[in-house]
Amino acid sequence: MRKFIAIGLVYAIVQILIMTNLISGYFQATLVTIGINIILAVSLNLITGFTGQFSLGHAGFMSVGAYVCAIVTMRMPTIPGFILGVALGAVAAAILGFLVGLPTLRLRGDYLAIATLGMSEIIRIIFLNLEVTNGAAGLIGIPQFINWTWLFIFTVGTVLLLSNFVKSAHGRACISIREDEIAAEAMGIDTIRYKVIAFIIGAACAGIAGAIYASYFHYLEPNLFGFLKSVDVLVIVVLGGLGSLSGSMLAAILLALISTYLQSFPEIRMVLYSLILIIIMIFRPQGLMGSREISLSVFSKLGRNKLWDRFKSQKGGQ
Amino acid sequence: MDKLLQQIVNGITLGSIYALIALGYTMVYGIIKLINFAHCDIYMIGAYVGYFCMTYFKLGLVPSLLIAMLVCSLLGVLIERIAYRPLRNAARISVLITAIGVSLFLEYGTMFFVKANVRTYPEVTGMMAQRFNVGEMVISMQQIILVGITILLMALLQFIVKRTRLGKAMRAVSMDRDAAQLMGIDVNSTVSFTFALGSALAGAAGILVGLYYNTINPLMGVVPGLKAFIAAVFGGIGIIPGAMIGGYFIGAVEVMVSGYGGSMFRDAVVFGILILILIIKPSGLLGKNTREKV
Amino acid sequence: MPILSVERVTKAFGGLAAVSNVSLDIIEGELVGLIGPNGAGKTTLFNLLTGIYVPDSGTINLSIDKQVIPLNGIRPHSICQKGLARTFQNIRLFKDLTVLENVLIAMNQNINYGLLTSFLHLPAYKREEEKLLHESIELLRIFDLDKKKDELARNLSYGEQRHLEIIRALATNPKLLLLDEPAAGMNPAETANLMDIIGWIREKFDLTILLIEHDMTLVMNICERIYVLDHGMLIASGTPDEVRTNKRVIEAYLGEDINNA
Ligand SMILES: Nc1ncnc2c1ncn2[C@@H]1O[C@H](COP(=O)(O)OP(=O)(O)O)[C@@H](O)[C@H]1O
Ligand SMILES: [Mg+2]
Predict the structure, then answer these.
(1) Which pLDDT belongs to residue B263?
(2) What domains appear along chain C, each with residue ranges and CATH number?
(3) B272 to chain A: which residues are within 8 Å by CB?
């Protein structure tokens, strides 16, 4: 319950700040970037951090969601059209996730990373050559529907759903694959099925993130979704800690702020970014959070202990 | 028919470049199981070193080539020493991200110093500018030099790996690092040596590309790097002859696809090949399938 | 009718036949020992039975509830779901997860809620999770591990890790349990205690057990029948007394300390 109060407070405070113009348009864009990056990072974390499947193709999933949503909303510039666009974007990305997941499942580690990278490059090249996506010139004038409220709903919704998922039996099945695939199989976990599920869910969320991007920045071109975008997301996930959703959120916020700050020094922005990356990896390869959770872990522990206490009191009562 | 022959000549030229770069990927992967994302940027640095040697210092091809190779091998060794060695026992993903970080650092660091714009290699003159017409087909002296130097370097590499003590140490460490260590092989210096060799080849590829295509820029390594990596995977990563075969194969495919009207999808075809090979035989053309011992 | 019947199964690695033309039958309710010197192919046979390796030739059939299920070509998880569970000689717990999570994961096939419930934590979620928790704790009690349920598996002692391996296998609700050197690394007192518990588990869960043991004397006490492997081949089978006096068995163990081996 406290969790929901806190979430509501965050929403209300930012909403008030926006309405009173205390948050500038520029900072609003940063907020949207943060929201998008959180969705991208927690969903990649499901694939890479929880299920242990190393993916370098998240930008590809994102681009599918972005283009589908853009194309739909440009033809139906209404709220229902927007919602339909997001939904179709998520579904299209999920289908792609399924298609990517299925054949590449035999691959492990670096090989999977490279295969997913290849997939997302192929998608980018297809978008570069399609007519509906207007090729390299991209799409301009996508209607803008995303505001703080929608952003908040999608971001918090994604995080809550995923954090519920990883705490369920299905989530545990995913985690067991990361821990030891052979042992997981031997314990009756259908590893292929769960890998595909992780890819589908992760891709669908990335599709939503793409849809938000399209609908806020009202401009799309295939080269926004290149290799570097996938790297960006992976960096957030690793920086936050593989297997830590709150770590991903923290890192997404941190990196967006750093990046906004560095915007004034475009020349050395990427140099500093890469240096920070190297230094963090050398001195804290497990990321900020390791696989622990910040506040969420307090809640989950509480939940667990409550369950345990109830179980014990039942025993005692008998 | 002549068109096909011309495509083959061009394919061999491009393939030589890919093969040279792929060798570095494959050797490093073989020895420390790392996809060295920064490798493609060492190739870019090689191109810049060559450029400065030839324009500012007015050096000839051979001294420039040697300097570029030397600078690149030092750089490769340095990168391994500073960025990769501290992480040798860390999770694979951390090392990979470090490699990506190093890659970005080299790209944008170079951009900071030389600016993002394209630089042009000096126009070749005299003997180097010659072109030979064989039927309808044109072969330039540059192509001959490029392929010739590549083959020379590959022969040299084979010799080093097969016949010298350091080469044997390299193969031993690739096979089983711990066992090699127990047998008294200095693993660290062997890894350094591997980086030096691979980076020197990339540096050579850089300057040759500069000569052949004339223009260079700080991001020039990214796409050829990916393709060279694909070439290494195609041949069987960790296997030196595999990288050579893979390089020429990818070069040929690419030239054929663009030669016959598919240039828009040239890169997509190469990535498609990657995915096919990964699905059909992830260990590559010359690799052996292995399964974890339970 | 045997619950497990293995017919002329062979598996080679490179040139080496790790398991060669092995046939054996396990009757429902039996506790059977599988012994043999190091490298005899015992673990490889387990890997074949559980689908981790695919046999080069031969057939493996599991009979559950009078129904014969050929295991050839079936993936490991569904072999497990059909009722054949195992432990690993070189402990393969989920080391960075808690003791409880290790057991919960093995119970995964019994969960009765779908993806939607897991996203939304609908009422079924709580109900099912509580049930799983309850059952897990019951299992953990067998080896007194319930007190350590929130410890990471990697922090358990070696013996406790072996115990948890057994519990985790039990959690998959097997009919036939394969134990790969469950007493490895334990002292004689611990081993004796473990063997008692294994006997008890068989009764309690109505199990059939196939037990690999390197230490011959140990199996002799609790197993009704014993198969002996050497160099991938089955060289003897029978009651402990028959096996003990078998010439080929003695030869196979020659060179190893007979009392210890
Ligand atoms: N995956 C594998 N690859 C190659 N050889 C293997 C593999 N698994 C087992 N072996 C070999 O098979 C033989 C039998 O091993 P194993 O079944 O582990 O013996 P045991 O469990 O009886 O000690 C050994 O020589 C071992 O080296
Ligand atoms: Mg064994």
Answers:
(1) 80
(2) 2-83+174-260 (3.40.50.300), 95-168 (no CATH)
(3) 118, 122
